[in-house]
Amino acid sequence: MNSAHIITSKSDEAAVRRVMVGAFGKKVKDVIYAKFDFVRLCFGRDWLVFAKSGDGRPASSINTIPSPVYIDGVAVPHAAIGEVGTLPEYRKQGMATLCLKKCHELFLERDVHLSSLSPFAYYFYRMSGWEIGGSYMDVVAAPEAFCEYEGPELLFDDPQDPAAIRGLYDRHFAKYNGSTVRNALWWTHYPFLFASGSLKGAYIKGEDGAPFAGCIFREDKDAKRLRIEELYFGSAGDFRQLMGSLKKRWPDFGLALTLPADARVFDLMDNPRLLVRTVSAGHQFRVHCPEKALAFLKPRESGTLSFSIEDPFEESPRRFTVRWDGPSPEILPWNGVNPVATTIQCFSRFYNGSVRLGPENCGDMMSCGPEALPLLQALQPLRGAFRSHVEPG
After folding, report:
1. 145 and which of 3, 27, 274, 337 could share a cystine (Cβ 3.0–4.6 Å)?
2. Do 48 and 99 form a contact (C-beta atoms < 8 A)?
3. Which of 3.40.50.150, 3.40.50.300, 1.10.10.10, 3.40.630.30 would CATH assign to domain 136-281?
4. pLDDT > 70: what percent of the chain?
C-alpha cells in the first residue's frame, strides 16, 4: 500500500534526492538541491514530505517552508509548498496527492493554518483543496522600450553578500506592490541562487553614494532577454532611471517582468504601447484549519455565522460558529445561527481576499441566507495575503 511520511533520517534524505533528480531532471539538480538544503538547514528535515510505493520505494516528494503571511496587518501561520515531484514510472497513482494530504495533516498538527503553492496544474491542486488566490501580469518589453530614459552606471551586487539589494528590499519593497508582507527568512534562500549563478543583483546609486533602486534578474543571452524577478525602487522616476541603466548595460536586450495583476507602476510610463501585457492565474492558496484561521481576522462589526465547510481531506464537513463583538472573533461549537455552507476552495478565496463577496457572486461561493451576506462582508479581510511566484512569505 502506498504511504506518506516525513523525512526523519539521512537515508530518507538520500532517497528523496534521487526522487527529485528523477522527477525534475539533472539539468535543474543544483537548484532543486539548494531549495531542499534550505528547508533542511533552516527548519529541519521533518518539514519535508515524501511518499513510498507499495514496494517500499520512495516515489514522490514535497518541500514545505513555514513562513507567516500578514492579513490586515496580522501575522498568520503559513507554509509555502514547492518542488512537488514524482518519478515518471509512479505518476497517476495518487503519490503526489498522498504527499499533499500528509502536508495537510502536518500543518494541522503544527498550527500552520494557511499554505500556498505555484501550480503546474490548477485542476490537480483544486481537487485537494487549493484554489486560485491571485493573478499575475506578465510584461514583455521590446529592446527600444526604455531607450529614452537616462540612468547612472549599473552596479552589480556581491553574490556572496548582496548587501545593497537587501538594503533596497528593506526600504522599498512596500512601495513596489503596496504590500508590507515579506519574510526575512527568504534572504537565507537567496545566497543559494546567487552563488549558483541562477540569479544576479544590480543597483544604481544616487549622488550621496547610497543605492536607491535595484533589481534581481536572470540573464538569457541566447534569447537576448533579461528576466526581472524582483524590483526595488521608491518612485516612478527611480524606476525609469533603473530601466535606463539596464538598457545602457544591455542595449539590444528585451525585458520580461512578472507583477501582481493590480500593479500600477507601468501606467506611469511614457511608452505603454511598447509593452505586451498578459494576465494569468497565479498561485493557489488553501486554508487548513478554518476555525483557527478565522480567529486572526479583524471583523468590522458585530455578528454571528455558523460555517459548514467541506474539505476533500476530511471525512465530514468542519462545522463551527464564529461570533464577534470585540477586536477578534470567538470560535464556538456549531449552533446554526446564520448558517453558511461552502467548500474549502471557496472559503480559501474568501479568506485570502482574492474575491470580494457581493450580491452578484455570493451564491457562487456560499450557500447562505440574505442576512448572512453583510456579516460575511464585515468578516472578510480588507487586504489579503499576496503571494508571488518566488515569494514564500
Report:
1. 274
2. no
3. 3.40.630.30
4. 81
